[in-house]
Amino acid sequence: MKNDNLIPHLFRTEYRKIVSVLCRRFGFSQIEIAEDIASETFLVATQAWGIEGVPPNPVGWLYQVAKNNAKNYLQRGAIFEEKVAPAWAAGMSDNSQAEIDLSPGNINDSQLQMMFAICNPAISSEAQIGLSLRILCGFGISEIADAFNTSKEVISKRLTRAKEKLREHDIEIELPGLNAIEERLDPVLLTIYLVFNEGYYSRSQNKILRKDLCLEAMRLCTMLIENPVTNRPKVNALLALMCFHASRFDARMDESGELILYQEQDIQLWNSDLIAKGAYFLNHARSGNHLSRYHLEAGIAFWHTQKEDSPEKWEQILQYYNHLLQIQYTPGAALNRTFALYKARGSKTAIAEAEKLGLGDNHFYFLLLAELYQDAEPGVATRFLEKALALARTEPEKRAIQKKLNER
After folding, report:
1. φ, ψ for residue 326 (rounded to 5)?
2. Residue 362: CB partners within 8 Å, gap ≥ 6?
3. Are the C-beta atoms of residues 302 and 279 closer than 8 Å to each other?
4. Angle between helices 311-327 and 293-304 (to 10 degrees)
5. Structure confidence by residue, pLDDT tens digits, 151-161
6. Which H, E and C letters describe the chain, residue by residue?
7. Identity of the highest mean pLDDT range in 203-207, 331-335, 397-401
8. pLDDT on residue 387
9. What is the rounded distance in angstroms from the CA atom of residue 203 to the CA atom of residue 259?
10. Distances in Å between the alpha carbon of 263 and those of 315, 327, 374, 402?
11. Which one of 28, 72, 143, 275 has the minimum C-beta count within 10 Å?
C-alpha cells in the first residue's frame, strides 16, 4: 500500500482501537482526551513518516506513540491531578498495571465494552449510530454527515450532546453481567443493524449502496460472536441476515452504480461463499427458545438467495413475513410481504391486500402497485410508476424508475 493511502487506512482500522483502550483505561468521561491522544498520534505519524519514511511495523509504531502520548498527558495534565490520578491511585497496586495495554486481547475487550457503552438507551438511536461510526468504525465527521445526508455541524453537535448525556448517566465501559446480557444486547444489535441498513439502503452521496458501512456492521457483529459471553442465537441470526444480503452486493448494482431490482439481477453474481457463511450462522442461531426478528428476517433473506423462482420459495417467504409482522410491524415489511403474496398467490389477491396498506407517500408502494397491475392494466401501472418517480428520494432510484417508464 502506498504511503498516501497507508495513514488513512490505518486511521480507519487503528484509531478506534486506540480510543477504545484509552477510554476503558480513563473512563468514558475522558473520551475527548482519548480521541485527542489518538488524533495526535496520527498527526505525528503524518509528519514523521513524511520525513523519515514508513517504519517497518507501522501499527506497532502507532501504538508506542499512543502509549507515550497517553503517559505524557497523564503526567502533566491538570485533569490528571484533579480527576484521573485519584482513581488511578485507588485502583492500581503496582506500576506494571499503569501501562497502557494495546495487546490484541485488550483491544478486542475494550472495543466490545465500548460497543455496549455507546449503544445505551440513554441516547437516541441516531446518536448511537453516529458514535458507533465515529468511535467503533473510525469514520470522520464528514463521512458520518454523508451517511445521514446532513451537515458536519449537525453531526458534531449530535455527537457532543450524546457524549454529554452518556457522561451525565455515568455510563461504565464494561460488559453487562450474564443476567443482563440478553436484554442489553438488543440496543447493540439494533445499532449494528441500522448501520448495515444505512449502507444497504444508502441515501447518501447519491449512492444506492455503501459497502463500507455494511462491512463495518458485519465486523462489529463478528466481534460479538467471537466473545463467548455475547455469542448468542440472535447475534448469529443477525450476522446470517447480513451475510445473505451482502451475498447480492455485486448483482445489486451495474457498472455505473445504477440499482438493479431483485428480479432483474444476474444470479451468477451472487456470492456463494457469503451464502454458505450465512447458512452456517443461521444454523447456529437455531439453538435456544427465543425467535427474534433477526431469525425471521434471516429466513427471508435465505430464501432470496435461492435461485429457483418457485411457488415454494415465495410461500416460505410469505410465511416468514406473516410471522414477522405479528411481532414487529413496519411499512417496509408490509410492502415486501405483499410482493411475496403476489408471487405466491397472484396479483388479484395481492392487490386487495396492497390497497389496505395506504402508503400514499411511499414510492416503493407505487412501485409495488405498478408491478401488481402490470399484466392486467398496463396503463394504470404506468401512472403508478409516474407517482413513484415523483416521490423517489435519490437520483439512482429516479433513474431506475425512469428507465422502467422509458421501456414501456
Report:
1. -70, -35
2. 331, 335, 391
3. yes
4. 160
5. 899 999 999 99
6. CCHHHHHHHHHHHHHHHHHHHHHHHHCHHHHHHHHHHHHHHHHHHHHHHHHHCCCCCHHHHHHHHHHHHHHHHHHHCHHHHHHHHHHHHHHCCCHHHHCCCCCHHHHHHHHHHHHHHHCCCCCCHHHHHHHHHHHHCCCCHHHHHHHHCCCHHHHHHHHHHHHHHHHHCCCCCCCCCHHHHHHHHHHHHHHHHHHHHHHHCCCCCCCCCCHHHHHHHHHHHHHHHHCCCCCCHHHHHHHHHHHHHHCCHHHHECCCCCECCHHHCCHHHCCHHHHHHHHHHHHHCCCCCCCCHHHHHHHHHHHHCCCCCCHHHHHHHHHHHHHHHHHCCCHHHHHHHHHHHHHHHCHHHHHHHHHHHCCCCCHHHHHHHHHHHCCCCHHHHHHHHHHHHHHCCCHHHHHHHHHHHHCC
7. 331-335
8. 96
9. 12
10. 16, 28, 14, 17
11. 72
C-alpha cell at 321: 413475513
DSSP 121-184: TTS-HHHHHHHIIIIIS---HHHHHHHHTS-HHHHHHHHHHHHHHHHHTT---SPPPHHHHHHH
| Under 8 Å between Cβ of 199 and 207 | no
Which residues touch 320 (CB under 8 Å, ≥6 apart)? 296, 297, 299, 300, 303
Determine the Cα angle at 352 with ends 336 and 338, to 5°.
10
pLDDT confidence of residue 46: 92
Q: What is the DSSP letter of 256?
A: T
What percent of the chain has a predicted confidence (pLDDT) above 70? 91
Q: For residue 144, which amino acid is it?
A: I
- Count of all residues that appear for the chain in the document: 408
- Residue 267, Cβ neighbours under 10 Å: how many? 12
* Alpha carbon 137 to its chain's center: 10
Q: Residue 338 in contact with residue 356, Cβ under 8 Å?
A: no
pLDDT tens sequence across 284-336: 999 888 899 999 999 999 999 998 888 899 999 999 999 999 998 999 999 99
How many CB atoms are located within 10 Å of the residue 106 CB? 16
Distance of alpha carbon 286 from alpha carbon 236, whole angstroms: 9
DSSP summary character for residue 94: S
Identify the bridge partners of residue 259 per DSSP, sorted by sequence position. 253
In whole angstroms, what is the distance from residue 281 CA to residue 273 CA? 13
